[in-house]
Automatic annotation (TrEMBL):
Modified residues (N6-(pyridoxal phosphate)lysine): 673
A GO molecular function held by the record: pyridoxal phosphate binding
Entry's EC annotation: 2.4.1.1
Keyword presence, Glycosyltransferase: yes
Name of the protein this chain belongs to: Alpha-1,4 glucan phosphorylase
InterPro entries reported in the protein's UniProt record: Glycg_phsphrylas (IPR011833), Glyco_trans_35 (IPR000811), Pyridoxal_P_attach_site (IPR035090)
Catalytic activity: [(1->4)-alpha-D-glucosyl](n) + phosphate = [(1->4)-alpha-D-glucosyl](n-1) + alpha-D-glucose 1-phosphate
Amino acid sequence: MPQCPSQPACSLPPLGMDASSLCSDTRHYLLRTLGAEETTSSGNSVYTALAMTLRDRLVEGWKNTQKKVAAGDGKRAFYLSLEFLLGRTMGNTLLNLGLEDAAHEALIQEHRDLADILEVEPDAGLGNGGLGRLAACFLDSCASLGLPVTGYGIRYEYGMFRQEIRGGEQVEEPDHWLKNGYPWEMKRPERIRRIHFFGRSDIYTDAQGKMHCRWIDSHDVLAVPYDIPIPGHRNGVVNTLRLWRAVATDIFDLGEFNAGAYPEAVAAKNNAEHISMVLYPNDSSENGKELRLRQQYFLASASLQDVIADWVAVHGENFRDFTKRHCFQLNDTHPSCAVPELMRLLMDDHGLNWEDAWDITSRTMAYTNHTLLPEALERWPVRLFRQLLPRLLEIILEINGRFLQEVARRAPGDTALLRRLSIIEEGDEQMVRMAHLAVVGSFSVNGVAALHTELLCKELFVDFCRLYPKKFNNKTNGVTPRRWLQWANPGLRELLTEQIGPDWKHDLERLRDLAPAAEDADFRTRWSKVRRINKERLAALVHQHTGVTFIPDALVDAQVKRIHEYKRQLLNALHVIHLYDRIKRGETTEITPRNVLFAGKAAPGYFMAKRIIKFINNIANVINHDPDTEGLLRVSFLPDYRVSLMEQICAATDLSEQISTAGKEASGTGNMKFMMNGALTIGTLDGANIEIRDAVGAEHFFLFGLNAQEVGQLREHYDPHIYIQTDRDLQRVMELVQSGYFNAFEPGIFDPIVHAVTHAHDPWMVLADFTSYKLKQREVAELWHDQTEWQRLSILNTAASGRFSSDRAIAQYNAEIWHLQPLAMTP
Ligand SMILES: *Cc1c(COP(=O)(O)O)cnc(C)c1O
């Protein structure tokens, strides 16, 4: 190969950040790279070309950030999560790079509208709901605060299913979000990792006569990383989300198959590649499928190997300072195989002894708990572990043995305590309790709202809390104000900056400065104008997707979240029936006109949740077609709830429904998005609602219902019929439902719903809170008539929402768990 060392490498022109640079680069990608035709190129081609243009502009910051991280001897954190509910990326990139106006102009030169191009992008729906969205908000905050945090997840081929509504029922359609390619990712084939499954563990002696364990006869799968850039807000930092894809180990395994069965052998590749095929669509419940355990181990092993490879490249096999430089945050127990897997890698692959490996593991792992619901607590059969992950099970049993010895030393003779704390649950079938594994293996365990953490220590982890009180801490959730305020609500963004200056954009607590403006009539008018525009846009969207015409200027009352009995969409639905009943009784003058909006997906195997969707749709259908409701009440179920839909909904909602049974919603984050955008909340004393109410003031929050303690006390002698007997309105509602009024052509379909709420064992106590909810909704309706007061409270809600920024949450994770130095970067 001819070389001329004296000749410098050809130079690259710097990338312009103005409209004409964006325009010419977009044209370059469109016409030269994608080979599109000038006049007939599709929206998708233009979207891809602009995405490539923007990605180029992320790469420099990306490399600079990586250099800074590598050069510094600083500590890094790794956020391990089976879910990252990213939504769309283009808008967020424009916002964080400050390229919104330039991109808008660039596309005008191309005779395109940026808004249309943004709509082309499919949501990256790699999560179910709150837990996955939290991971995405956290990555945005880490980058915006300049913290060296890498996200690790799975690159599911199919994300959260697309929801269609047919005949009022949910129909799931596969979400092939990658079908047009995903321009934001970069494949990193040089960082492929090998993951073991099955086989057995084997003891051998090395050349020095030392005994070791190894995992042999395994069936291996390759983990191929794809990196997505995570830019900070206007600070030059670009962190990484690394998603793993499962790929078969290629032709090597062919020998295992019958030599004559070549096509069958190639087809068997599929088996390995199934691991990253699809996201499990269960929110707050586990289904215990083997493939899910494979996904969990796949993520944990690939990510830890990746981190260790970087360490070894610099420090060799010396792990002395590893703890000082690493922290792994486990998003729920889903990635908690990381505890035994780090032990395995350190001992079997890098020669550490148990004590040193345990010291490192138990001082680098931190676990976030997301739920108290027993059906969501992960337990895996020991039998399954033994078969699928034999070496891991050995390590788990050793961790447990040593842990129980320590407990026995501290509480001699208390065998009941040992049984309660054990990582292994005894019974007909022995099970591995993943939450216990995560608690034992971590130096920090946190809940996600004050009440949730308190209940964790009083109930689920009461024994652990007594044993290790210092391990437990609270980190109330937050949401990123970039996506959920600045991007979702540009009208409000401009108005806020006009009124209080731009400082709130990097310190959301500065929204406090808005409070005095709540008393200013002129400002209130401007405030409600912005909100009205947002509401008109939402009404158009609802009309387009459901055919329902919202009542102009009426109260927009929204409950959008996963469909689950504990979230009590049923309570809302029964109240809607009550409003309808009042209209039918002729109380039309007292009724405040309302548009009631529902949206949310049900887990495909969750019968009751799917029936609730049908119930809401049937109610909507009857009400919307009854001429008596004209101008008074509209009900709609907007299909396919997802991040990009919530961006429009939260900016246009007047009343945020946060009505879960007290003690059941760990935190909620939808509640925070609504509050930031000026919605008032009707809610129970549950999750972060409590902190929202404290922040805005009790007089500016519509509180109703039993508190968590009262729910607990009522449980034993709960009798739903008492509430029907004592509230004539509720009685009429129940009679309407039971008469088949909403299912004239589908007899009996709502019997399960009637049964669920009238049953003495209704765990969600829907009817117990009906009267209190109904009365509070009357206060809401009355306040709506006083628009001055309503807009005043709306402004005060936004003004008090600063602490629900995920920047505050991440600053606390960092100050109390991670202890990372922010990167010094220039924007
Ligand atoms: C914020 C968000 C959630 C969480 O909502 P909750 O009301 O807290 O359950 C779920 N899904 C999407 C798409 C979201 O944006």
